[in-house]
Design goal:
This protein has two domains: 3-96 and 284-310, 3-Layer(aba) Sandwich (Rossmann fold); 99-275, NAD(P)-binding Rossmann-like Domain (Rossmann fold, 3-Layer(aba) Sandwich), CATH 3.40.50.720. 38% of the residues lie in helices and 15% in strands. It has helices spanning 12-20, 32-38, 55-62, 82-87, 100-115, 118-126, 152-163, 188-194, 214-218, 237-245, 265-268, 284-309; strands spanning 3-6, 24-27, 44-47, 69-72, 91-94, 144-148, 167-171, 183-185, 197-200, 225-228, 251-254, 273-275. Helix 4 (82-87) links the parallel strand 4 and strand 5. Helix 1 (12-20) packs parallel to helix 12. The two termini are 22 Å apart. Bound molecules: 3-phosphoglyceric acid (3PG). 3-phosphoglyceric acid binds next to loops.
Length: 312
């Protein structure tokens, strides 16, 4: 019987599907040292972003040769040493589209929260201060949204923002064809200088590490907001804090931190920074879609192996 280990949770219906297909499923988080042992006993491991599948874990798996498939329920693969695993015959898969809408909706929510000073309004009212006069906000309608990276999430967000009357400009490694000409390709520097909301949607790689730093924040508008629902590490967080404290930018919304689950204090406690604990993909709908896609990936993987083995 093929054994599946799920370490960061998975939709219950999808687990049911795997059980009904005859897989032996264990759902439990193992800290690194324990995972080094556990990984030797499983054929498949299913993770989100909390579990790290680094070379040391893969090396342990190779001692028994049982691990065949690593599935990332979600998009970012920066917690898995993909090339190392694949070079050793272990397949790695993710679910690249299933959570796009959920993350795009969170970014949209963050823009409105920033525009209308919702965090400050909450904090002051909870302290008994009726700060109505100080809380005059702005509207996102008519403002410019600058997207850095134009993959599935950014495109979903671009559509929504466009429907709400925003101008959308984007930068990516390639210029995308947009027949309706709703979204305009722009240089990175141009987006930084022009946009009222800058939101990053790239993976964390050697090229994007600290892409947002002192120099970049210095060139943003004083009224602009910065949003990161992509990955910590793309942003130099100390530089972001300084830019907000010196009024170089107006504020930020951060869902992904360099050091999770213990972000730096300065960001957590700042009245102009909205913080959430990496919940972009955490909607019921997204997790259902992710679960079903994972079940499909696992079932297809083993079906193909059987078909190939029988020489069909
Ligand atoms: O890369 C992703 O899919 C998102 O960052 C969500 O990560 P999570 O599954 O750990 O919430």
């Amino acid at each position: 019987m093929k054994k599946i280990l799920i370490t960061d949770g998975m939709d219950k219906n999808a687990i049911e599907i795997l059980l009904n297909q005859g897989f032996d499923v264990e759902e439990k988080f193992y800290p690194e040292e324990e995972l080094k042992e556990k990984i030797k006993e499983v054929d498949v491991i299913i993770v989100r972003s909390a579990t790290k599948i680094r070379q040391n874990i893969i090396d342990e798996a190779l001692k028994t040769g049982r691990l065949k498939l690593v599935v990332r329920g979600g998009v970012g693969l920066d917690n898995i040493d993909v090339a190392y695993a694949k070079a050793r015959g272990i397949e790695v898969r993710n679910t690249p589209c299933a959570s796009s809408n959920a993350v795009a909706e969170l970014v949209l929510c963050e823009m409105l929260v920033l525009a209308r000073n919702v965090k400050l309004a909450n904090l002051t009212l909870q302290e008994g201060v009726w700060a109505k006069k100080k809380l005059k906000g702005t509207e996102i309608h008519g403002k410019t949204l600058g997207l850095i990276g134009f993959g599935n999430i950014a495109r979903s967000l671009a559509e929504k923002a466009n429907n709400l009357g925003m101008n959308v400009i984007y930068n990516d490694i390639v210029e995308h064809i947009d027949a309706r000409e709703c979204f305009k390709f722009a240089k990175f520097e141009e987006i930084i200088e022009k946009a009222d909301y800058i939101t990053v949607h790239t993976p964390l790689t050697e090229d994007t590490k600290y892409m947002f730093n002192k120099e970049v924040f210095k060139n943003m508008k004083e009224t602009a907001f910065f949003i990161n629902c992509a990955r910590g590490g793309i942003v130099q967080e100390e530089d972001l804090l300084e830019a907000i404290n010196t009024n170089e930018i107006a504020g930020a919304a951060i869902d992904c931190f360099e050091n999770e689950p213990q972000p730096i204090e300065g960001l957590l406690n700042h009245p102009k920074v909205t913080v959430t604990p990496h919940i972009g993909a955490s909607t019921r709908e997204a997790q259902e879609r992710i679960g079903l896609e994972i079940a499909d990936i696992v079932i297809n993987y083993f079906t193909c192996i059987l078909v190939n083995a029988s020489g069909c």
